[in-house]
């Protein structure tokens, strides 16, 4: 019991101090006692002819084994003083269990165990205090780690958000560059776009108005009365509208229903009649507004 293992160098100072005090307790009180000699080495089961020893004793223990555990250098040694205490008790309990109550070994084991328990009770408050302190330190370290992880995640989120914002700004710049490099819209181009808008389905027409609203916050796409002035729209909006209208009309052409030859499901038509009527009414209102604006433009002196 002269030294602790090299792995103890990595232990916290408080725990290391307790291990050293516990080692001193074992040395001064137990191993140096005149009755300690039967417990210093593993029981010589074969030499003493104790053929039933391992049937009675599940886990043999002795002070040399405890010493080796204390000095273990591969990380397999004792982690705390309670483990040492448990093995010291096991040494004496094994001896008392196997030997008769009035035998010398039983009496020696009980005497040493009583002395150990007396000293352990004096030592226990230090153990409890160190365990409490270690629990607080571990809880604080866990909290610090959690806060650090949350801060790291928050930073990643901020960085990603900033990168996305920069990408969006860059995309806006690229879109504007593309528009500037495109040819300017003529009056005839705008007229054709206005006519194409009137051929959209009510759903696609609503989406087209939303495109206008994206670049023109003052434009109310869902207002009761919509006044869409093609001439007032930016080049970027016009190009976006053109591409959208082109794709929408192509999709409409592909999905247009063929003639059913009078075999239409009447019940389905009745259920959808009100929705279709409302959509068509909305479409007529918007198309009338587009035509009205185009008519005003055509009356302007050239």
Automatic annotation (TrEMBL):
Region (Disordered): 254-286
InterPro entries assigned: Bromodomain, Bromodomain-like_sf, NET_dom, NET_sf
Domain NET intervals: 175-256
Membrane-spanning segments: none
Keyword check for Transcription regulation: yes
Keyword RNA-binding listed: no
Domain Bromo: 31-106
Gene3D superfamilies: 1.20.1270.220, Bromodomain-like
Keywords: Bromodomain, Transcription, Transcription regulation
Pfam families, per database record: BET (PF17035), Bromodomain (PF00439)
Matches recorded under SUPFAM superfamilies: Bromodomain
Low complexity biased stretches: 270-279
N-terminal signal peptide: none
Organism superkingdom: Eukaryota
Protein name, per record: Transcription factor GTE1
Organism name: Linum tenue
């Amino acid at each position: 019991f002269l030294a602790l293992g090299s792995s103890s160098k990595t232990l916290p100072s408080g725990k290391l101090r307790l291990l050293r005090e516990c080692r001193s307790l074992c040395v001064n009180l137990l191993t140096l006692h005149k009755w300690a000699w039967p417990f210093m080495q593993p029981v010589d089961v074969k030499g003493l002819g104790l053929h039933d020893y391992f049937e009675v004793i599940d886990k043999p223990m002795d002070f040399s084994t405890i010493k080796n555990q204390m000095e273990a250098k591969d990380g397999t040694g004792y982690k705390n003083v309670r483990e040492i205490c448990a093995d010291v008790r096991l040494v004496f309990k094994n001896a008392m269990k196997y030997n008769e109550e009035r035998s010398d070994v039983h009496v020696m084991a009980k005497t040493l165990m009583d002395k150990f328990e007396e000293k352990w009770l004096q030592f226990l408050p230090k153990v409890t205090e160190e365990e409490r302190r270690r629990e607080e330190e571990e809880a604080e370290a866990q909290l610090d780690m959690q806060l650090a992880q949350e801060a790291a995640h928050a930073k990643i989120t901020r960085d990603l958000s900033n990168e996305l914002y920069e990408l969006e700004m860059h995309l806006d710049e690229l879109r504007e560059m593309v528009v500037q490099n495109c040819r300017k819209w003529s009056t005839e181009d705008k007229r054709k776009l206005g006519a194409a808008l009137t051929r959209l389905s009510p759903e696609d027409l609503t989406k087209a108005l939303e495109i206008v609203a994206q670049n023109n916050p003052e434009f109310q796409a869902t207002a009761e009365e919509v006044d869409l002035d093609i001439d007032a729209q930016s080049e970027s909006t016009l190009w976006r509208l053109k591409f959208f209208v082109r794709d929408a009309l192509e999709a409409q052409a592909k999905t247009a229903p063929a003639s059913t030859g009078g075999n239409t499901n009447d019940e389905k038509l009745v259920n959808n009649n009100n929705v279709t009527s409302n959509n068509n009414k909305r479409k007529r209102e918007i198309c009338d507004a587009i035509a009205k604006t185009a008519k005003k433009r055509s009356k302007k002196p050239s």
